[in-house]
Write a structure and sequence with these properties.
This protein has 287 residues and is α+β, with helices and mostly antiparallel strands. The protein has one domain: Penicillin V Acylase, Chain A (4-Layer Sandwich). Helix 3 packs antiparallel against helix 4. The two termini are 26 Å apart.
C-alpha cells in the first residue's frame, strides 16, 4: 500500500514522489546500469521481492502504487520461477525507453499492474492496469492511460480512479472497507500536499505530516508491529536532474557511494535524512 504523487514545477518540470509501504522491513540496494545504446538507468531494488523503480539518463522516471496487493506480496515466490517476469523486471524494461510515452507503451506490452506514474521533464502519464476479475491465471489484462496537463496535480493510492473496479473496494466486509477508507483518506492527503507544495521537497516532507490520530489514514504509516503496513521509505524522482532521491524510514539500505556517484555517470542517487519522518507528530488535522 503506497502513495504516488506528481506535480509540475516551473523551471524544474515534472517531479514524482512516493511513500512506499510494506508489511516487512526491506533491504534496499541501488543499481546503475549502462545499456549498449548509451542509455543509463538508476534504480533502487528491494532485495526480498526484486521490485524496483527509478530513472534513466533521458529523464524517464517510473513509480507506482499497487492495485493488487496480494499479487504484490506474491513477488517473493513468483520471482523464483524460471522465466517469470515480476513487476520489477517490467519496470526496468520501461526504464530502457527514451521517452515517457515509449515507456508507457512498453509497460502496457508487459502488462504491468498498478497505479503507475510514468514521466519525463515535460510529460506525465498515469497508467492504471489490472488483471480482470477471476482472470489472474489467464492474465486477462485491462488498462487505461491519461496524459496529465502541467496545471494538474496527480495522485494515486491503492484503488482505481479510472478503472474504478480495481484495488480496494467497499464490499461490506469490515477489513476490506477499512482498507478502502485508508486508501481514500491517503489520496485526499496526497492531493492536499500536492496542491500546497511550492517546491519538490515540500511534497516529500508533506507526506510525513500527521493529519489524523489514526495512523492508517496518514501519508506516513508509523506501525512497528510485525506484518503491519508501515512506510519503509520515501522516493523522489526529478527528471531534469536525472536524480533518484531516497529517504529510508524503516528500511535497511546497502550502497557504495563511490560507485553510485562516479563523475562519469549520467544518473545519480541521493540518500536523504529521515529527520522529517520523525517530526510526523506535528498535528495538522485542525489546519
Amino acid at each position: 500500500m503506497c502513495i504516488v504523487l506528481g506535480k509540475y514545477f516551473e523551471g524544474i518540470g515534472w517531479v514524482g514522489v512516493k511513500n512506499r509501504d510494506r508489511n516487512y522491513v526491506p533491504t534496499i540496494s541501488f543499481k546503475n546500469k549502462s545499456l549498449k545504446d548509451g542509455l543509463e538507468i538508476m534504480y533502487y531494488e528491494d532485495q526480498d521481492t526484486k521490485y524496483c523503480e527509478g530513472i534513466n539518463s533521458q529523464g524517464v522516471a517510473i513509480i507506482g502504487a499497487s492495485l493488487m496487493v496480494k499479487d504484490d506480496e506474491m513477488e517473493i515466490k513468483s520471482r523464483k520461477k524460471i522465466g517469470t517476469e515480476n513487476s520489477g523486471t517490467k519496470i526496468k524494461h520501461g526504464l530502457e525507453q527514451s521517452t515517457a510515452k515509449d515507456a508507457v507503451k512498453a509497460l502496457i506490452d508487459k502488462k504491468l499492474t498498478g497505479n503507475t506514474l510514468v514521466f519525463d521533464q515535460e510529460n506525465m502519464y498515469i497508467l492504471e492496469g489490472a488483471w480482470r476479475p477471476n482472470e489472474y491465471k489467464t492474465k486477462g489484462y485491462s488498462y487505461k492511460v491519461q496524459h496529465i496537463p502541467h496545471d494538474q496535480v496527480i495522485a494515486r493510492t491503492n484503488h482505481g480512479v479510472i478503472l474504478k473496479w480495481t484495488g480496494y473496494q467497499h464490499t461490506g466486509e469490515k477489513k476490506q472497507d477499512l482498507k478502502r477508507i485508508s486508501s481514500e483518506a491517503r489520496l485526499l492527503v496526497a492531493n492536499f500536499v500536492g496542491q500546497q507544495s511550492q517546491e519538490p521537497n515540500e511534497m516529500l516532507d508533506g507526506l510525513t505530516m500527521k493529519f489524523s490520530d489514526n495512523p492508517q489514514l496518514n501519508g506516513l504509516r508509523t506501525s512497528t508491529q510485525a506484518s503491519k503496513m508501515r512506510t519503509t521509505a520515501q522516493i523522489m524522482l526529478i527528471p531534469s536532474e536525472k536524480t533518484l532521491y531516497f529517504r529510508p524510514v524503516q528500511s535497511n539500505i546497502k550502497f557504495d557511494f563511490w560507485e553510485l556517484n562516479h563523475p562519469e555517470q549520467q544518473t545519480w542517487v541521493e540518500v536523504l535524512s529521515n529527520r522529517p519522518a520523525y517530526q510526523h507528530l506535528i498535528d495538522h488535522s485542525a489546519k
